[in-house]
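Listing S7. Sequence submitted for prediction.
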Amino acid sequence: GFFHSSLSPAVELGATWPPVGISPFNPLQIPLLNTLILLTSGITVTWAHHGLMENNYTQALQGLFFTVLLGIYFTALQAYEYFESPFTIADSVYGSTFFMATGFHGLHVIIGTTFLLVCLMRHWLNHFSSIHHFGFEAAAWYWHFVDVVWLFLYISIYWWGS
Protein backbone atom coordinates (compact mmCIF):
# COMPACT_ATOMS: atom_id res chain seq x y z
CA GLY A 1 0.00 0.00 0.00
CA PHE A 2 2.63 2.56 1.07
CA PHE A 3 4.96 2.14 -1.88
CA HIS A 4 2.20 1.96 -4.45
CA SER A 5 0.50 5.01 -2.96
CA SER A 6 3.74 6.97 -2.71
CA LEU A 7 4.80 6.16 -6.28
CA SER A 8 1.44 6.96 -7.85
CA PRO A 9 -0.74 8.94 -5.43
CA ALA A 10 -4.41 8.61 -6.32
CA VAL A 11 -6.85 11.47 -6.68
CA GLU A 12 -8.42 10.31 -3.40
CA LEU A 13 -5.11 11.15 -1.68
CA GLY A 14 -5.02 14.57 -3.29
CA ALA A 15 -2.63 13.32 -6.01
CA THR A 16 0.28 14.14 -3.68
CA TRP A 17 2.47 12.23 -1.26
CA PRO A 18 2.10 12.37 1.65
CA PRO A 19 -1.65 12.77 1.26
CA VAL A 20 -3.29 16.15 1.74
CA GLY A 21 -3.73 16.89 5.44
CA ILE A 22 -0.81 14.74 6.62
CA SER A 23 2.12 16.49 8.28
CA PRO A 24 4.92 13.91 8.35
CA PHE A 25 7.72 13.88 10.91
CA ASN A 26 10.90 15.76 10.14
CA PRO A 27 13.36 12.96 9.30
CA LEU A 28 16.25 15.00 10.74
CA GLN A 29 14.80 15.13 14.26
CA ILE A 30 13.69 12.14 16.39
CA PRO A 31 13.83 9.66 13.47
CA LEU A 32 17.49 10.52 12.81
CA LEU A 33 18.26 10.34 16.54
CA ASN A 34 16.62 6.90 16.66
CA THR A 35 18.72 5.85 13.66
CA LEU A 36 21.91 6.92 15.44
CA ILE A 37 20.76 5.14 18.61
CA LEU A 38 20.20 1.85 16.80
CA LEU A 39 23.45 2.09 14.83
CA THR A 40 25.31 2.80 18.07
CA SER A 41 23.60 -0.17 19.70
CA GLY A 42 24.88 -2.34 16.84
CA ILE A 43 28.39 -1.18 17.73
CA THR A 44 27.91 -1.85 21.46
CA VAL A 45 26.53 -5.36 20.92
CA THR A 46 29.50 -6.13 18.64
CA TRP A 47 31.83 -4.70 21.31
CA ALA A 48 30.17 -7.01 23.86
CA HIS A 49 30.65 -9.99 21.54
CA HIS A 50 34.34 -9.20 21.08
CA GLY A 51 34.71 -8.91 24.84
CA LEU A 52 33.10 -12.30 25.30
CA MET A 53 35.34 -13.88 22.66
CA GLU A 54 38.42 -12.42 24.38
CA ASN A 55 37.25 -13.55 27.85
CA ASN A 56 36.95 -9.90 28.85
CA TYR A 57 34.02 -10.20 31.25
CA THR A 58 33.81 -6.46 31.99
CA GLN A 59 33.80 -5.39 28.33
CA ALA A 60 31.07 -7.89 27.48
CA LEU A 61 29.01 -6.76 30.47
CA GLN A 62 29.38 -3.07 29.61
CA GLY A 63 28.59 -3.67 25.94
CA LEU A 64 25.44 -5.61 26.78
CA PHE A 65 24.38 -3.02 29.37
CA PHE A 66 24.73 -0.13 26.92
CA THR A 67 22.97 -2.08 24.17
CA VAL A 68 19.97 -2.75 26.42
CA LEU A 69 19.96 0.89 27.54
CA LEU A 70 19.99 2.08 23.92
CA GLY A 71 17.15 -0.34 23.05
CA ILE A 72 15.05 1.10 25.88
CA TYR A 73 15.90 4.66 24.81
CA PHE A 74 14.89 3.90 21.20
CA THR A 75 11.56 2.47 22.40
CA ALA A 76 10.90 5.47 24.65
CA LEU A 77 11.56 7.90 21.78
CA GLN A 78 9.32 5.88 19.48
CA ALA A 79 6.52 6.00 22.08
CA TYR A 80 7.03 9.76 22.46
CA GLU A 81 6.80 10.14 18.69
CA TYR A 82 3.53 8.18 18.66
CA PHE A 83 2.00 10.37 21.38
CA GLU A 84 3.09 13.57 19.61
CA SER A 85 2.09 12.41 16.13
CA PRO A 86 0.01 14.94 14.18
CA PHE A 87 -1.75 12.03 12.42
CA THR A 88 -3.35 8.77 13.55
CA ILE A 89 -3.50 5.22 12.27
CA ALA A 90 -6.90 6.09 10.76
CA ASP A 91 -5.52 9.02 8.71
CA SER A 92 -5.25 7.59 5.20
CA VAL A 93 -2.87 4.97 3.88
CA TYR A 94 0.04 7.05 5.20
CA GLY A 95 -1.07 6.85 8.84
CA SER A 96 -2.00 3.19 8.72
CA THR A 97 1.23 2.19 7.00
CA PHE A 98 3.37 4.39 9.25
CA PHE A 99 1.96 3.01 12.50
CA MET A 100 1.84 -0.58 11.26
CA ALA A 101 5.42 -0.64 9.94
CA THR A 102 7.05 1.30 12.78
CA GLY A 103 4.89 -0.45 15.39
CA PHE A 104 5.82 -3.89 14.08
CA HIS A 105 9.47 -2.87 14.09
CA GLY A 106 9.10 -1.39 17.59
CA LEU A 107 7.67 -4.69 18.81
CA HIS A 108 10.76 -6.44 17.46
CA VAL A 109 13.00 -3.89 19.21
CA ILE A 110 11.20 -4.69 22.49
CA ILE A 111 11.65 -8.43 21.87
CA GLY A 112 15.33 -7.92 21.03
CA THR A 113 15.89 -5.71 24.06
CA THR A 114 14.29 -8.37 26.26
CA PHE A 115 16.42 -11.06 24.63
CA LEU A 116 19.57 -8.99 25.27
CA LEU A 117 18.48 -8.24 28.86
CA VAL A 118 18.22 -12.00 29.47
CA CYS A 119 21.71 -12.36 27.97
CA LEU A 120 22.97 -9.59 30.26
CA MET A 121 21.58 -11.43 33.30
CA ARG A 122 22.99 -14.75 32.08
CA HIS A 123 26.39 -13.14 31.54
CA TRP A 124 26.21 -11.62 35.02
CA LEU A 125 25.61 -15.17 36.34
CA ASN A 126 28.59 -16.51 34.33
CA HIS A 127 26.49 -18.64 31.99
CA PHE A 128 28.55 -17.60 28.95
CA SER A 129 32.14 -18.23 27.97
CA SER A 130 34.22 -17.62 24.86
CA ILE A 131 33.19 -21.07 23.56
CA HIS A 132 29.67 -21.34 25.02
CA HIS A 133 27.43 -18.39 24.14
CA PHE A 134 24.96 -19.37 21.43
CA GLY A 135 22.09 -17.51 23.11
CA PHE A 136 24.11 -14.31 23.05
CA GLU A 137 25.12 -14.78 19.40
CA ALA A 138 21.50 -15.41 18.41
CA ALA A 139 20.45 -12.22 20.21
CA ALA A 140 23.25 -10.24 18.55
CA TRP A 141 22.33 -11.47 15.05
CA TYR A 142 18.68 -10.67 15.74
CA TRP A 143 19.67 -7.19 16.93
CA HIS A 144 21.70 -6.53 13.78
CA PHE A 145 18.71 -7.63 11.67
CA VAL A 146 16.47 -5.19 13.57
CA ASP A 147 19.06 -2.46 12.82
CA VAL A 148 19.04 -3.18 9.09
CA VAL A 149 15.23 -3.21 8.96
CA TRP A 150 15.19 0.19 10.71
CA LEU A 151 17.50 1.66 8.07
CA PHE A 152 15.02 0.55 5.42
CA LEU A 153 12.11 2.04 7.41
CA TYR A 154 13.95 5.29 8.04
CA ILE A 155 14.69 5.77 4.35
CA SER A 156 11.29 4.65 3.04
CA ILE A 157 8.89 5.95 5.71
CA TYR A 158 10.61 9.00 7.19
CA TRP A 159 12.95 10.30 4.50
CA TRP A 160 11.05 9.40 1.34
CA GLY A 161 7.69 9.86 3.07
CA SER A 162 8.41 13.45 4.00
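Caption to Listing S7: primary sequence and predicted C-alpha coordinates for the chain studied. Residues 92-124 form the longest helix (33 residues). The chain has one domain: 23-159.
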